[in-house]
Amino acid sequence: MNKIVLMSFALFTLGISTTKAQSFFDKIDNAINKVDKASNTADRASNTGGKLGSLLGKKNKKNTAKATDDNNKTVIKISGIDLTSLKKLDGIVSGVSGVTDTNMKYNAAASTITVIHTGSSAKLLDAIQPKAKNIFTDKNIEGFDEGIIEIKMK
Q1: CA distances (Å), 41 to each of 38, 47, 60, in order?
Q2: Which pLDDT score is estimated for 27?
Q3: In the prediction, which pLDDT does 64 show?
Q4: Is beta strand 71-79 parallel, antiparallel or unpaired with respect to 148-152?
Q5: What is the arrangement of strands in the sheet containing 141-145, beginning at the earlier edge strand?
Q6: pLDDT for the residue 71
Q7: Handedness of CA 135, 139, 140, 141 (dihedral sign)
Q8: pLDDT per residue of the chain (154 residues) written in tens, 0 to 9
Q9: Residue 125: CB partners within 8 Å, gap ≥ 6?
Q10: At 134, is the secondary structure helix, strand, or coil?
Q11: What DSSP assignment string belongs to 101-113?
């Protein structure tokens, strides 16, 4: 009899604590929902502001360079290059006529420079090579096709 009363009390206590924990999780869920709603409202306000700005003649500089049809994207993949040489190459690429934007990513094994430019990838390579003689030569070029240039340094 004692065991039954003790077990009933333990189950009752456990049930109450479980109910309190569920209530706590519901409060957390409600707080997350409020943050999501606020985030969605901010996104909608930003989109509306961008649309109003475009109607009033304000241009987003980041999107105008990428929106034109004559701009191309080429990824230059370089394996085995050090950070100093990569920075120099990025400076050379960004200084080439027709290049509107570059984005450099460094990794000791394989680094990339993403280039937004006018003209073809072959013309871009032809414009880069004379200025980058001390970084790479023809024998370092593993391959190139429209949209990608592969260079192996070591």
Answers
A1: 5, 10, 21
A2: 79
A3: 45
A4: parallel
A5: 99-105, 110-118, 71-79, 148-152, 141-145
A6: 84
A7: positive
A8: 788 877 887 777 777 767 666 677 777 888 888 888 888 787 777 777 776 666 666 554 444 444 455 788 999 999 999 999 999 999 999 999 889 999 999 988 889 999 999 989 899 999 999 999 988 888 999 988 999 999 998 7
A9: 141, 144, 149
A10: coil
A11: EEEEE--SSEEEE
The pTM for the full model equals 0.55
Cβ neighbours of residue 121 closer than 8 Å, sequence gap 6 or more: 72, 74, 144, 145, 146, 147, 148, 149
Separation between Cα atoms, residue 4 and residue 24, nearest integer Å: 30
Per 3-state DSSP, the chain is made up of helix, strand and coil in percentages (nearest 5) of 55, 25, 20
Encoded tokens for 23: 């209530």
C-alpha 77/C-alpha 114 separation (Å) is 9
Concatenated DSSP letters of 36-89: HHHHHHHHHHHHHHHHHHHHTT---HHHHHHHSTTEEEEEEEEES--HHHHHHH
Contacts of 54 (CB under 8 A, 6+ apart): 60
Backbone angles phi, psi at 131, to 5 degrees: -85, -20
